[in-house]
Amino acid sequence: MARLADYFVLVAFGPHPRGSGEGQGQILQRFPEKDWEDNPFPQGIELFCQPSGWQLCPERNPPTFFVAVLTDINSERHYCACLTFWEPAEPTQEVVCTEDATEREEEADEGGLVQLSPATPATPGQLFAPKTLVLVSRLDHAEVFRNSLGLIYTIHVEGLNVGLENVIGNLLTCIIPLAGGSQRTISLGAGDRQVIQTPLADSLPISRCSVALLFRQLGITNVLSLFCAALTEHKVLFLSRSYQRLSDACRGLLALLFPLRYSFTYVPILPAQLLEVLSTPTPFIIGVNAAFQAETQELLDVIVADLDGGTVTVPECVHIPPLPEPLQSQTHSVLSMVLDPDLELADLAFPPPTANASSLKMQDKELRAVFLRLFAQLLQGYRWCLHMVRIHPEPVIRFHKAAFLGQRGLMEDDFLMKVLEGMAFAGFVSERGVPYRSTDLFDELVAHEVARMRADENHPQRVLRHVKELAEQLYKNENPYPAVAMHKVQRPGEASHLRRVPRPFPRLDDGMVQWIVDQAAAKMQGAPPAVKAERRTTVPSGPPMTAILERSSGLHGNSARRLEVVRNCISYVFEGKMLEAKKLLPAVLRALKGRAARRCLTQELHLHVQQNRAVLDHQQFDFVVRMMNCCLQDCTSLDEHGIAAALLPLVTAFCRKLSPGVTQFAYSCVQEHVVWSTPQFWEAMFYGDVQTHIRALYLEPAEDQDHLQEDERSALDVASEQRRLWPTLSREKQQELVQKEESTVFSQAIHYANRMSYLLLPLDSSKNRLLRERAGLGDLESASNSLVTNSMAGSVAESYDTESGFEDAETCDVAGAVVRFINRFVDKVCTESGVTSDHLKGLHVMVPDIVQMHIETLEAVHRESKRLPPIQKPKLLRPRLLPGEECVLDGLRVYLLPDGREEGAGGSGGGPALLPAEGAVFLTTYRVIFTGMPTDPLVGEQVVVRSFPVAALTKEKRINVQTPVDQLLQDGLQLRSCTFQLLKMAFDEEVGSDSAELFRKQLHKLRYPPDIRGTFAFTLGSTHAPGRPPRTTKDKGPSLRTLSRNLVKNAKKTIGRQYVTRKKYNPPSWEHRGQPPPEDQEDEISVSEELEPSTLTPSSALKPSDRMTMSSLVERACCRDYQRLGLGTLSSSLSRAKSEPFRISPVNRMYAICRSYPGLLIVPQSVQDNALQRVSRCYRQNRFPVVCWRSGRSKAVLLRSGGLHGKGVVGLFKAQNTPSPGQSQADSGSLEQEKYLQAVVSSMPRYADASGRNTLSGFSSAHVGGHVPSPRARVTTLSNPMAASASRRTTPRGKWGSVRASGRSGGLGVDVGSRLAGRDMLGPPQANGAPPDPGFLRPQRAALYIIGDKAQLKGVRPDPLQQWELVPIEVFEARQVKASFKKLLKACVPGCPAAEPGPASFLRSLEDSEWLIQIHKLLQVSVLVVELLDSGSSVLVSLEDGWDITTQVVSLVQLLSDPFYRTLDGFRLLVEKEWLSFGHRFSHRGAHTLAGQSSGFTPVFLQFLDCVHQVHLQFPMEFEFSPFYLKFLGYHHASRRFRTFLLDSDYERIELGLLYEEKGERRGQQACRSVWEYVERLSRRTPVFYNYMYAPEDAEVLRPYSNVSNLKVWDFYTEETLAEGPPYDWELAQGPPEPPEDERPDGAAPQSRRRVVWPCYDSRPRAQPDAISRLLEELQRLEAELGRPPERWKDTWDRVKAAQRLEGRPDGRGTPSSLLVSSVPHHRRSLGVYLQEGPVGSTLSLSLDSDQSSGSTASSSRQAARRSTSTLYSQFQTAESENRSYEGTLYKKGAFMKPWKARWFVLDKTKHQLRYYDHRVDTECKGVIDLAEVEAVAPGTPTMGAPKTVDEKAFFDVKTTRRVYNFCAQDVPSAQQWVDQIQSCLSDA
């Protein structure tokens, strides 16, 4: 029973003490005046009566009523019912407010609390003051309060003849029951009657209609998000103009949270004076009047629900986790069925008559029923996770969160995680966890209805029926007696508040009220207390838990086969069948990824433990430990599946004897898992064990016969029984039970202190490594249940240092840290479980001793375990090294772990799991190499190799990873290289941290040598060539001068030499230029020593003084290219033949003007050398515009330069060419510059003189030397290939279409297209971007376009009279290339598997890198320039410093415009000219030295190669070189194996003596220093760089598509061959040697050549070569069989072509026979093949049109060979004799383990072979040694089984790339003779 009302208070308006305009509330009277003992008077009532403040009002307002809620310090809620009415203000009150009554009026309006009535106000100037009647109660009977206060008001207003004191006295003494469903009629003694009903169950909240109203106001989604926000402890603020609505909304939200109770700040109506409460850090639910909305704007972490507007605003920084699916969607749909029943029928053609909608009250209960079901589904089975820690004197219960989440399958669910960690749930556990108590609807639902809810899930109507049933129960709980007698309460008349009341509310008689109260109190004392007996029962637990959503566990389905494997393996281990176990182990380790298998393992291991101990031998111990580690590896720190919990007793049971008295337990080998350092895990384990022991405590007395059924009872059942019996026990018995329980807990605490020390103290306590990993141990103040709310916890967690472990693991003592950790644990669990303080003190004393003892035990174990013989580890495989490559660090044993690429792990390729592999990492002077074998024995004996050049390393980071075999946490390294390799390695435990550190240091030293001379390319040859003494900087001048002299000598030699063996391809059109074709293209290897009389000797024309200055005159590639292009020949450059528009200027010969330019430059004939110096000052880095290419057709030139300095062209445009009288010195530079550009323009063919010259057709007719282009030549526009192909050459292409139509015009804004197009187009452009008609080019079109950076050319207004025009474009900077490349690397070679595997994540990260967008921009700009040049305008590319993007664009333009650069030699020339000579900063961009380390790797050249690759893909027949050639250059430009791509300019190369070293001198079999030399050597042996589809169309200009959709990811970035590492070091990439034929047992059938090819392991191109390589190989084999001397593949190829050409010319127009067919991209025509002779030597030409062949092949051939096909094979006649240069008998050592045998050897100089036969007359050759492969011939030593009688000196070895052959002659002289013959044969080659 309880009082209906505790206090009655009368509050009135009073003046503010500080005299401000605001008034304040004053309590006039309160009854009773003394506080009740059990319930003191709440403070601050006067604030809550008028939440918006006390103000006077100019009108009488109608009375208002609302209920405010105050919460006291004991979190008891007090309901304050407030009825406010207005009375005329007394004069004293008015004085306060006359100052500004109007202002007050406005405020009252704004406040919006009062609806101003339409009636006329009383006397003008009259003000009204509010007065409030307040009832304070702990019961929530709002309607009764409204009626009671209304009655008191009515008596006063209507002047009824009833004493107010009596009514108030009766109200204060009314006693009503709390719950139980009783009904009570009360009367206050004024002829009134009210009926009070109490709810059936006290625990269920009363909501009336509040929930239904809340849903009506806010809608389903909003209420759901408020529900989640309140549960996850966020701050919720309601706004409304109505106070009653605010109360209802808050009440409704709380009702939804049932069975959880909201335990934070709850203020449904917050007064204006207390608004600062809103900035409290704790969560809250608060209601505020909408008038104060502005004040709530700046709250950053508060969710605001506007009830009047129906919106919920969630701030950006707040994340409300949604309900877990499928509950979220299910709840949503059920709510919509309840709120809108017509929704289901809305679409029916014949809707049934609408059923009556539920009343608001009923709907309210239905909505609550939905949420009650939701909680039952969420918390289903929660009782199975309760731990009974104590039963007496009071139950102590803990909840095992991790087990609950794990078993529900909601570990990842943010929502449930936060709910379980919240305060409300902690209250739920302590309140509802109690096993013996009264139950309510929720307990029934969660215990008995779960199965029904599961079954109903997919049947909406059944769900709705269940909801209605629950709603009925909830409704009945609130209204137990439906047929209630009518209330009878008097109410005031209509508009009574407007009548003039004769007197204000009277002062009441205190004494009288007090007397009534005292009378009632006296009566109560006599009456016995009415105690309603609670019906207490055992709370049902319900069915065990199930996962909320049956998720299939993917790969590791819980298949019986897997469990069988686990069981078999364990039984093999314990039966001692180790080989069997070893075979099964990999499968077991894979199976252990699944939960069921891990459980199975723990169960199986338990079976092998007797009396808590199982002693194993060493091998068994290792196996068990490995399986345990594998199990624990996937455990999270919370151990939600209980695997670590199940293993904990086992790790202290399994052990092995190390020596007498020393036993090692398994725990010392499984420590390195995060779960052991998680306090929550230990707490859950401890409470679980305590529960088991306490249950056992009460089960002991059971007798034997019912022992079985007793044991079935759970701990909760036992506890429930004990709680029931507790009151019946004697005091002593109670005391005894309490003591027993306490000592049980205490003994467990000691046990756990021991266990924790076992798992936390590392075996080697000096190592300390363990603790460094476990950031947790050092700092665990933030233990399991912190009271910080989620909104705060987020920010706290982020500010926390992630490495919050020990300050410094070295200085910190392990023991101290473990003691602190255990002490904290002991403190927490013992205080929670009620251990006495004496016991706790004792524990604190014990812990350090336990730890110390354990450390001592471990020392002995550690010492003995070191003595164990190590487990046999596989032998380390040594890698193959290049000649000259030396090992810096020998193999460190490591595991190579799989990274994010699936292939290595066998993923997408479908092969076996090659990774993880076990092996060693080697560091050589050139590479980092891993070689090893897969750890999975089922993969077989495959060698796994992964390597990359040291110079390519871009990132190195330390990682901590688990080794795949022992699952130990080890230090590791992750190395990433710019050649797209990733080594993710874990060091074996035998590798000390100092060795790993040494490896890192050495790697760093090799990656960043202090000087370029420290790179591999320099150190490589250092043994052969004498090291050059490093020059000091002072004598730069002299060294250059002396060099110049030598250069001229060399120049004579070089120019005079003709190479007979190599001829170069040139497109036919150059032949007609009337200038002798250059005799020699650059070739840095001297192939033949014959010198012919010089045909071109420039030195005769040089004045002696000039000779030494012509430093790079003939030597460099550029010079010969300029001659080829007709840009000034050698003679004209000196004698100044004025006929030539351009000349070669030696002005930069000493690199004085521009250090980064070559020595000779092409400049306009009219410009003097001294003017160049001044022009250069206007450009960045002094890189002034120079010509680098000229179109043979349109005669337009391509120029390059650096960007402009501030002054210059820009200034000159801005000045509009109006020279002021006193022109400053600064402008002279720009004048020079203008003159220079003018000179460039005037050197070009004029536009005015030739009539038709302004159209493209005009240019084509003026084509060089009358060579008529074929009418079928290809011209297509980028935007629409079909439309343009119709018009072919006659219509010029849509030149701006290419820029405008491209999908992502990024770099070139539309403005380029439109500006240029605006100048050039007369009519409207066609739809496809092609020009409207052939005459579209205006005569005044600019002669020169300057392509510059947009940022540089801002604000420039082009002058229409100028002959040049600026094209501003947006370009990306080098740093953007670097950033983009980093992302590209991570996308192509991710460090760890993606969260969502599949192509989508790769494509997303590829897009994020923006690499393809940059490629797109480059191609787009290049195509624009190609168009301009093709149309006859010259172009100057002037971007950044002129050495990055400028170089890329200029090179691409030449490649697209000039077929010569698409040949092998042409491409080399292009790279040497544009990249090397024009000073691309290879060393700086590649970060080659220590100085460049900070700038990082910026792959500008690689990006260029990627662009070439994109063009190659679109035009596969236009390139002589294969895609492999591009990859090869891409790899080696970063590898530093060759000197070609070192240093930043020719100047630096000359200074280091690189440029002309040893030119023309014979260098013997020495390592190549130039990449070109290497390519040439390799090309002689294999056609790997050659593209068989090469069939160029004459003078074809390529215009590739540049849209991102047309670009492909280069396979250079993604392919990998684990069999041999990157295939770009050809010597290393040769597979293992084939067994020589004679080594086979006689008579055996030849072995099958078939083998399995794994896509992720083998190199597919090598395993399956293309058809032509195959044919060439076949040819070589035939040659060997027939004993012919083998020919180089190129000669054979050329002969085949010649024969093919003859065969296909009966009438000159025959259709060529097809050699091969291939699919070429769509924009190629039908494919045929014909072979043609080029003008300068033969090349393969695959052309497309038969009718063109006659025209193309007409060019005169120098080759007289006109043999028909039949003669091609005449060489294969077996005339052996002429090929035997030298022969005799030699002993030869067979392959491994084979004896020495005498053979007859024949040295064949023609075929370049050493053949051997069984005897002299034998015709069948037994084997061949190809001399091309021989690297050295050296004296040998006798080995086992060698002929005994022979002298030692008769032995010699022949070393080939494949193997070493051991020979022995009969005597020393013959041995010497053989060696000499072989040597001479080699030198002839």
Key descriptive features of the protein:
1885 residues, alpha+beta, seven-stranded antiparallel β-sheet, 44 strands, 38% helix
Question: What does this protein look like?
Answer:
By secondary structure, this protein is an alpha+beta fold. It contains 61 helices and 44 strands.
Flag low-confidence runs.
95-122, 550-557, 703-710, 769-776, 778-811, 1023-1039, 1041-1115, 1131-1137, 1207-1226, 1247-1339, 1558-1565, 1632-1646, ...
Helix fraction, binned, reads 25-40%
Spatial extent as radius of gyration: 48 Å
* Sheet with the most strands: spatial strand order: 25-24-23-22-28-27-26
Q: What's the short story on this structure?
A:
With 1885 residues, the chain is of the alpha+beta class. The protein contains 61 helices and 44 strands. A hairpin with a 7-residue loop joins strand 8 (183-186) and strand 9.
